[in-house]
Amino acid sequence: MREITTNIFKRLNYKCLFVGENLVGMDSYLRELISKLKIQSIDHDVRIVGIWGVGGIGKTTIAKAIYNQIAHEFDCVSFLENVKEIHKVKGGLHDLQKQLLHDITGENLYISNISQGAQVIQNTLQSRKALIVFDDIDDDLKLLEYLVGVPHWYGRGSRVLITTRDRNSFHKVDDVFEIEGLNHKDALKLFSLYAFQQSLPEEDYKILSNDVIHYCQGLPLALKVLGSLLRGKRTSEWESELHKLKNIPNAKIQDVLKISYDELDRAQQAIFLDIACFFKGEDRDFVSKILDGCEMVAKSEIGSLEAKCLITVSHNKIYMHDLIQEMGWEIIRQQHPKDPNKWSRLWNPNDIYRAFMSEEGMENIETLSLELSISKEMWFTKEVFAGIKKVFAKMKKLRLLKVYYSGDVMGKEYKTSLPEGFEFPRELRYLHWERLEALPLNFDPENLVAINLKCSNIKKLWKMKKHHEKLKFVDVSDSQQLIKMPKLSSMPNLESLNIKGCTSFCKLHSSIRAFHDMKFLKELVLEKTGIKELPSSIQYLTSLEFLNVSWCSKLEKLPDCFAKMRRLRRLDMRVTKVKELPSSIGYFDARLGP
């Protein structure tokens, strides 16, 4: 009876992962992978197995399928998806550690840094038989050291799966499973499911279907994209598309994917390129609202891109296969192959530097995403400082701007100063500039939808005394010199305000007078600020869903005004001096804590 109860608990203790409906050629892969994992081994050793293959071959799908099949055999399970992509984001490794610990314990454990996180993970796993999947990792030593760990981290009988495109990412694995392309039979079936919604092609399309299978060479992603592209078309249209394919080298998978891009209308193409060059990995709702601010019908168009297999959406994050992203980049490059200053979008630090130094063109640029972590030395020079004002003055069409660091960069020398008289383009809708010394004196966020000024030295934001109807997101987190915010009533459509880590900010009440005008604010993050009290007028934030005042060491009490805040679902007030909750806090169904 005890064994039966334990097995039932294990089956209830994990969530089955969605792997899609059209799974083809999977059985043989699963049998081989089960063999390599040695699930029924009696020696109870820890076993680590790698899944290796080119992009689009189906590594993640196979990992999810095997996870669903064997998860009930273990005490705890975790599937960490898109590890490499999340790791690239500042604080991503820390977030991955917290997600792993949450999955295996069911609790939101507090860890102050990645070193502590690694130790907690080891201590937690050592006594458990665990199944852990790390999906899409690279050979970053920090990632391997502080997240994946080594065999002695894991309890007896544990199994670890690692998926990657780079075989050099495997360290101390017991076996490697290489995924090859589908055979002709399985490839034809997969293609037919997308092209005809049945397992075999229609009679008139058999020869043409075999031509497609030969061209795709067993790559599942290409089979799905072409199947979706050709579905519902006449044989003459198939012949036309296949004739077009004959002019593209078989190795150029990116060009295969471009056929699907060519069928998009102009608005869809623009959004696709914005995602490929700027928004990959971002929250879908966030992206939609910024692009809506650019006069695009983003929500439905993003759905169209997802339907055509050009993007995927997981946990409301927009992802794009690397090959598809590279195809988008190539489309931009082909506008002017040798002149990045004439492109419509810039994302590569070297190309951006070439464009800036030429001081020519730049009139067509709509989006610019510059990561300074790997190229900061070339940007902090007198030449760049002298020319930046002139270059930005030319970018009249610039809509999206992001200047950021993917890792921790310490030291004042890497703060960015803007020259006197600098102006941001008026068409700008999204401004994300980390570690900025100060905003221009004449800064006016008239058309901005989102502002992100993390880790800046800014003491005050803009001085303009007028309403900014378009502004929805403001993030000035970790700007330790910030002492004053504009009146929030001047931003009536604001949805999220993040002042986390602004230790000098201590007078929230002086910047807020008309909360009743703010009908859309859902998230207010005041974590680690110097605030001493919350104004009673906070009760007028009737749309507020998340209020974070954790680690506000000077905050001693909360106002007794929560009765009207019916939508508040989460209140985080850890590590404050608040000793007694107000009676009105019982009026809403809130979840206290992280």
Q: Determine the strand fraction and express it as a percent band.
A: 5-15%
**Would you tell me the overall average pLDDT?**
85
Strand order within the widest beta sheet: 8-9-10-11-12-13-14-15-16-17-18
The largest pleated sheet is described as:
11 strands, parallel
Q: In percent, how helical is the residue content?
A: 25-40%
By secondary-structure content and strand pairing, the structural class works out as: alpha/beta
Radius of gyration: 26 Å
The total count of helices amounts to 19
Number of β-strand runs: 18
Q: Give the overall shape, derived from the CA principal axes.
A: globular
Uncertain segments are 1-12, 248-252, 590-594
Please give the alpha-carbon distance between the first and last residues.
37 Å
Key descriptive features of the protein:
five-stranded parallel β-sheet; eleven-stranded parallel β-sheet; 594 residues; disordered N terminus; 18 strands
Report on the architecture of this protein.
- The protein has 594 residues and is an alpha/beta fold.
- Helices cover 34% and strands 11% of the residues.
- Helix 7 (141-148) links the parallel strand 3 and strand 4 (159-164).
- Residues 1-12, 248-252 and 590-594 have low confidence and may be disordered.
- The longest helix is centred in the first third of the chain and has 14 residues, at 92-105.
- The chain is globular, with a radius of gyration of 26 Å.
- The two termini are 37 Å apart.
- 35% of the residues are buried.
- It has an eleven-stranded parallel beta sheet with strand order 8-9-10-11-12-13-14-15-16-17-18. A five-stranded parallel beta sheet has the order 2-3-4-1-5, sandwiched between helices. A two-stranded antiparallel sheet has the order 6-7.
- The chain is built from 19 helices and 18 strands.
